[in-house]
TrEMBL record, chains A, B:
NCBIfam families: sulfite_DH_soxC (TIGR04555). InterPro entries: Ig_E-set (IPR014756), MoCF_OxRdtse_dimer (IPR005066), Mopterin_OxRdtase_euk (IPR008335), OxRdtase_Mopterin-bd_dom (IPR000572), OxRdtase_Mopterin-bd_sf (IPR036374), Sulfite_DH_SoxC (IPR030835), TAT_signal (IPR006311). It comes from the Bacteria. Pfam families: Mo-co_dimer, Oxidored_molyb. Signal peptide: none annotated. Keywords: Metal-binding, Molybdenum, Oxidoreductase. This is Sulfite dehydrogenase. Residues 319-431 form the Moybdenum cofactor oxidoreductase dimerisation domain. One of its GO terms (molecular function) is sulfite oxidase activity. Its EC number is 1.8.2.1. Its cofactor is Mo-molybdopterin.
Length: 453, 453
């Protein structure tokens, strides 16, 4: 399928931060959207009117009169009910979609698409835009024929139909789900000029399902049972090893996302939900859970999802996604249209619990201001933040830094790189920086790009 | 468009509750789903195993072995990423859709479709299933050309583009939205045998937008300005009168629902959000807000959305949706498959704030037990409740009763009817009753139907 968006790829920063943090935009400089000012801004002269406000839309009596005329939509009937028994977005939103990087994985059956974070609002990801990650393509499973087996070191091996599962007590919670490879391409330096590419391997939805602990108690864990091995019914046979303590905590088996049945791309008819932990543990198309005395050493926890350290050893079982944040607006898909008031916006989240606070810097980390939250603050879920910013048009370096309720502070990239080197792929949760080019900078004025230091 | 589901219409209850509450199912007795027991329930004999548990899925070693074989999905690759850049539900879920009653309104351009509440989970309604209500069809508006005007008794008439609106501080909140005609068909007696028909004129999503108070302050309300008149750009020119105090409270102008742009059916590109109040005030395709000294007396607040009282007068300006609740499972779309343990589930909500508690009766209101909540409890949003029920197979009458944080208790239907008669159409928020037919009742055993008393 042809992707209509030009991939914007920035070269790596050539010099260190202290040497000026210059960076170059290479390839297409086209931007997908613009931060627009109303042209008539300076015409505003009402009593007490603050011209520095975010908008200045008064445009004189004539234009008001024009705008108040009945438009085309008033003069024709629209379409009727049930044109879309299951609705779809407006055709004007057709560019808001999941996208992949063609070069990222060699095969569409074992690849990923990213959620367009820069186009989203609030903390809920609509089901149609939830990121995808498959290891063997997406099966279309008949829920009437699907079974979940719990076996191994249990008192009573159990077989569940979908109806059986729905008859257990239910739980509905809003959680983010994040691939540990989110940001993988940024370990060695900046590569990608869109928050959809740097952070889009995650989504946040409301899941409904059955507590895993209820099912495991029903089966009765034998004393020697210390690990669970969930396994998917798809061609990949995805499996992971999860310690029993974690499994008995707040995990559940979801049959719904955002109110309706799971989507196929997210594991229809059932997937495991492991709140706060990396997404590959959230096994999709879940067909069995084996209770075991030792971890499984499955291929997806040896060949993949391990972290190659500078000394050549590999970190394994890095379950939790540490606190992370990103400014989504403005970000490289946008272009500043002039100095003025902006509201910096973004997402913060933590696999360890709730977001406690978020600080924002516009000068590359020299000074910080606390942002406020514009959404509910929920456990292991996205939190939206916002901060007023009067941009004077000079070069700026936008950064966000989250602190979670455990006190963990999101590190800068040099600190993360110093500890883990640059050969690692997973759990790159350090801060990112958006460089805003000075307004007077010729044709690049107002451009926003991903830089590192 | 052909609706594949047979409409199930029950005749009105013929006798009063005290005379036995008999009711008859008329027309098709087909049910859309069933509450299934695993057939092998009685085979369970593990140590400590409680056969009365909701499920009893142990089915012997042979079946476990069979189920553990690799199934069809394991043996073939599924489809790859970006088959659906904007995703859709599994084809197995195609019956989960918005539906209308053909006889309810004479024209599809001024009609309604209902959300399939019995098929939903959690508190978020997916955008594709959000109920629809149009007065003049759905326009497809180009957001680049759309304008919002604030004028009338203001210091500074203002014109906003969509980009202008997005540059204001944002707010993201989860709220229910409900047509005051929800339940309208039930005033005189029971008519409809599905919770999609009795309560489906509502949904609950996360909205993101701009506080209305910020925009009104920007315009500067003149001292004589006491009402706002929001008006839509569609063929219906929907308008309502809203007192300034209410407008300055927690209203906002939404450009997003569940993360993405509003759907056309819900007002793309912008709609007013009036939390807790009847949905017709949430003007869609919002094109202007006139500040006025008196209410407008628009046709939609004189011919419609007024409540005809027994004495012939009409109640007007019934803004708030009072506390309400309904059991969605089991409900008339399901059929009990035998005595055993069930978890009664439903939705509660209040236009006045948070849900405080929900009681459930299985004996038609003689005795009550408190349900627990299985979702976050948010302001003016749906709350999910659940209660364990050991059904002995005898006739039962299921009811739920919500109390909100103001202390308001949901009334029984006779009380509401005594006050408001039966000619009213709107704000029927009284309790409903689902009759469960006794298990031994021949072919009707386990059927569930909507009854009144």
């Amino acid at each position: 399928m042809t992707d209509q968006i030009v991939e914007k790829v920035a070269v790596q920063t050539e010099e260190s931060r202290n040497q000026g943090r210059r960076a170059f935009l290479k390839g297409s400089a086209a931007v997908a959207g613009g931060v627009m000012f109303t042209k008539a801004a300076s015409a505003a002269e009402g009593a007490g009117y603050d011209a520095k406000k975010a908008v200045a839309p008064y445009a004189g009596k004539e234009e008001i009169t024009t705008v108040l005329q009945d438009g085309a939509a008033r003069k024709t009937l629209g379409f009727g009910v049930r044109k879309y028994p299951y609705g779809m977005p407006s055709p004007f939103e057709k560019e808001v979609q999941r996208r992949t990087l063609e070069w990222l994985t060699p095969d569409s059956m074992a690849s990923i698409t990213m959620t367009p974070l820069h186009q989203l609002h609030g903390i809920i990801t609509p089901n149609g835009l939830h990121f995808e990650r498959f290891h063997g393509g997406v099966p279309t499973i008949n829920p009437d024929e699907h079974r979940l087996v719990i076996h191994g070191l249990v008192e009573r091996p159990l077989i569940f139909t979908m109806d059986d599962l729905k008859r257990f007590p239910s739980v509905s919670r809003i959680h983010f789900v994040e691939c540990p490879a989110n940001g993988a391409m940024e370990w060695k330096g900046v590569q990608l000029n869109s928050v959809q590419w740097t952070h889009g391997m995650m989504s946040c939805v409301e899941y409904t399902g059955v507590r895993l602990s209820d099912l495991l108690k029903e089966a009765g864990i034998k004393p020697e049972g210390k690990w669970i091995i969930p396994e998917g019914a798809d061609a990949a046979g995805m499996a992971r090893s999860i310690p029993l303590d974690l499994a008995m905590d707040d995990c559940f088996i979801a049959y719904a996302q955002n109110g309706e049945a799971l989507r196929r791309e997210q594991g229809y008819p059932i997937r495991l939900v492991v709140p706060g932990c990396e997404a590959n543990m959230w096994v999709k198309y879940l067909r069995r859970i084996q209770v075991h005395d030792v971890p499984m050493q499955h291929r997806e926890e040896t060949s993949k999802y391990t972290e190659l350290m500078p000394d050549g050893t590999a970190q394994r079982f890095s379950w939790y996604m540490e606190a992370n944040s990103v400014i989504t607006y403005p970000s490289p898909d946008f272009k500043m249209e002039g100095p003025g008031k902006y509201f910096l916006r973004g997402l913060a989240w933590s696999g360890r619990g709730k977001v406690a606070h978020v600080d924002i810097s516009v000068d590359g980390g020299k000074t910080w201001k606390e942002a406020h939250f514009t959404s509910p603050v929920l456990d292991k879920a996205w939190t939206r933040f916002e901060l007023e910013w009067d941009w004077d048009g000079s070069e700026a370096f936008l950064m966000s830094r989250v602190t979670d309720e455990t006190g963990y502070v999101q590190p800068p990239m040099p600190q993360m790189r110093k500890l883990e080197g640059t050969n690692n792929v997973y759990h790159r949760t350090a801060m990112v920086t958006w460089r805003v080019h000075a307004w007077e900078d010729g044709k690049n004025g107002g451009l926003i790009e991903n830089v590192q230091y």
